[in-house]
Amino acid sequence: MTKSSDGTLGNLPAYIAKKNPDTENDVRTIFHDLYAARTETYRTIADVTVKLEDAPKNLNLDNILKALSL
Length: 70
Hints:
3 helices; 6% strand
């Protein structure tokens, strides 16, 4: 993200730019709202969801494989 001398924000993804944010906080809020909506959409259409932990990769892999019954 860049900010020009007149305060205009630039180098934003189109899905954020079209909402005309005025501040970096606006950009963060727009992104967060999009992320939350997208996550909920994915959750509703997914057959299986797995909550990954702050753990070693192999433990998370085991959780994924269990969820997939593999």
